[in-house]
Amino acid sequence: MQFGMNLLLWTDHLHDGLLPVLEMLKRQGWDGVEIPVLDLSLNYAEWGKRLRDLDLRCTAATARTAADNPISPDAKIRAAGVEATKRALDCCAALGSKLLIGPFHSALGEFSGKMPTADEWKWGIESMRQVSEYAGKVGVTLAIEFLNRFECYLLNHVADTVKFLKDVNHPNCRMMYDTFHANIEEKDPIAALHAAAPYTVMIHISENDRGTPGQGNIPWKETFQAIKDVKYDGWIVVEAFGLALPAVQAATKIWRRMYESEEQLSRDALAFLRTGLKK
Questions:
Q1: Which of 17, 43, 21 is closest to 34 using CA atoms?
Q2: Among 34, 120, 151, 239, which one carries the catalytic annotation?
Q3: Measured between alpha carbons, how far is 85 from 133 in angstroms, rounded to an integer?
Q4: For 44-86, what is each residue's pLDDT tens digit?
């Protein structure tokens, strides 16, 4: 099991000013970091070397927008979505990340006002099959993220995500389980974690208020026990959000500070994970 910290607490793109943060996370004892792959023009090979020099491993995260929505009725927009995720996979390969996570199945924050149509589901499957084939070629596994109903409408919970994976039917297309989204959408988050386990290659640990894990109402004792029971031994990444990034703040609807400092949150989160999973 490897513990990672999502860098979206500090930044939505890699830059030199982030080096002290990476050094701090290494001192705290994190195994790695989750890299936002939203700016596809960066030199990710160089950043992969910097991470290796710090002895930090990594995963990567990306998302799609209205301009490259894989379930758009416009074939050109769907094609742009496939191409954008393929480019993100190239960035993963350059970084040295074996996982690309995120809601790249459909556009983040884009709504039709209705439930997904049969055509949208079909377009999503077709797009993801193309991306999955490419993922296999570059040696990266996709970890599709279901989001709560306020952030997307295609995949909102475990059952739909499992059905989506079965329809895509590709070994490089798997899923992630996120405690924040499950807390909103699942009638029984622990049963959902068990149901997701055969397909899960990433777990996001996130408190109900997106602040420090362990300081809210997520059922952590039961969650940690379920992780043990299903014998999950992959990446566990803490995802928290703050006020540092206007675009991320607007997307995640964070309007107040949920923690003392980013250093405090990351330090306490790692201690909480280690203690909780040990028990």
A1: 21
A2: 239
A3: 12
A4: 999 999 999 999 999 999 999 999 999 999 999 999 999 999 9
